[in-house]
């Protein structure tokens, strides 16, 4: 480190010698001046770390220059050079603020060697003193300095403001160890030389009661106190205590209010019976979940907060983030979604969602209500209306038409004179009567469709039960045995599979094998296939086999099968090749199956 020094002497030769000797040490860069007036101009334009000035100079001497510098509050290290036997000048210089003095009687080499040895520590000390002074006076933290006996020597303005004290004289020599606002155990540790830090309330009324000092403040404040014993091992420090105090009143009040608010929020959140989630809209992370959410989704809280909302919401990730953005911007606060439970079951939900700030972070709250049963009721109403229309159509149209034919046949039979012709009309009337019976039985089956809650069916058990109801001695029944597929469907699912197998045996002619197997597809659906090795279904009949045909053995059966499957969103179609056997493909949507 090279320090900048201003050297002043009216003798140019001495200035030259001083510059040469001091710069040779490598610690100084010296600027010389031959008058006080010139030096004052240099001080205005240039920063110096120290000043060395001769006392005796024409015009204005070094002592006058020293006083003018100190008068302006400049604390720069100042060294006075005097002649031998000038004791009074030395005393005046020290009283005026000089830091060092040297007699010029010594040889130049010895003189400047002594100056260089003492000037560097002086500059460092002064710089540290200036830094400390700036920190002490400008710090917003209250600072107190006590001597080794615990008597207060100095405080900064922040301390006076904090404690409502007008002047330092009010508290000069205040005893640190007699302060009632300092806990006794703290004082004990302090006397043992420990560094202390604590936070507690400070009682101004106690100060007034004990008449410790005058203060304009009342009541309590919350403070953080740090007391540092000053090191006795340093010969420049006589010992004492440095006390730093921060006012935490507003912070403490805010923290208490926040804590109270958070406790209220936590109580409402945790004890609410509604399902609640806190979600980060930036990445979809579930930040918190109340006990009702854990019970509903079938996860522990620890498991839920490891998931993202994309793990439970059945929408695409892009659509989910678009919806969260609407909630964050308060463009919408009400949504309909399909949520996946831990079991894999899909539930219909309505979600109330909006922005909430927690710990200065913008999040989303979501209150979830399960509306699956409500949706089923709505769907049941639609189905009921459809059934009423269908039954009405059957009653008015089909049965009346057949009844008209039946009446006609009976009238013809009654007027015929030929017994053989009458018998033919009676046989036709019997066929018509059986047709009416068939339609009435259909209306009975159809009115039961969807009347009961869908159930989870093990398809392996369904296939085995259906096979047991049919004479399949000549037909081999095959089904998957490696994994277990459960399907959510109407309780009449058994009738659907029975109908498919019974049709295969009745109409397949060459059937020796009926197979049931399934496969999960990339689009989330499961394909469940039931096929046989019979003659298959002609291409022209593939669509009509699911129509409500009158007079066909299987028409109403397959029509009902399709209606039963549709209750839970399952579709069915025949995809086999003619001559290669019938092949019925049932597509089961996500949420309507479980694989175990």
TrEMBL record:
InterPro entries attached to this UniProt entry: HATPase_dom, His_kinase_dom, PAS, Sensor_kinase/Photoreceptor, Sig_transdc_resp-reg_receiver
Transmembrane segments: none
GO biological process: phosphorelay signal transduction system
Annotated ranges, domain PAS: 261-305
Keywords: Kinase, Phosphoprotein, Transferase
One Pfam family named in its UniProt record: HATPase_c
Residue ranges occupied by any Histidine kinase domain in the UniProt entry: 394-592
Substrates-to-products reaction catalysed: ATP + protein L-histidine = ADP + protein N-phospho-L-histidine
Entry EC no(s): 2.7.13.3
Top class in the EC scheme: transferase
Protein name: histidine kinase
